[in-house]
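cron nightly-structures :: item 1 of 1
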Amino acid sequence: MKIKLVQQRICYRLTPLGWALILGANLILVFVIVRTIAVFLVVNKPLETEILIVDGMMPGYAYDSIVALAVKNNYHYLITAGVNMDYTFNSSEKFNTAEFSYKVLSTKKLDKCELFKAPASSVDRDRTFTSAMKVRDWFISNKLFPSKVNVISFSCHSRRTWILYRKAFHDFAEVGIIAINDNSYDYNKWYRTSKGVRMILSETIGYLYTKIFFHPKVNSL
């Protein structure tokens, strides 16, 4: 019996052309992602409903857009949501984003739309989800059980906001989303400004975390 200590195997390796094709395909993929990621994050999927939830704090011009939207679409309820945030470098000084939005919107002409607020307490993480749960609890405590609601969020945070509100409202109501555009940078050229890079990268990471790792338990009604 002949004992073999080595054996011959056929090994396939990429040719320079093969490497070039793989590199080219990856570059095309990166290019497509860079050009479309902002549009993906800034999502608009509104539903037909009489209830509009304003999540968090917005820049000044956004509130005028919210009022115009509420009046044009005949919303009956406008609810501000948010949590406590640090006001200055002194962490003991805080303000609530729901209270802030409520205060700003209360100075606007809302016609037949009624304005309410559902401020949540201080949290160090999962602020949007905490806000969503507070709004859900507000509906229940006021004996309101809508079948559909729309949430309005700012810019590229809207995709993550939509996911988190759907998690909080999973057995309560269907959730639509409306995004207010950020006028400070071009979504198609976000990589050309420091703010665009900062916001898109941060929200992309947040989106991936929410989709992959964030699976909270929400008590059913």
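cron nightly-structures :: done
DSSP finds six helices and seven strands in the chain.
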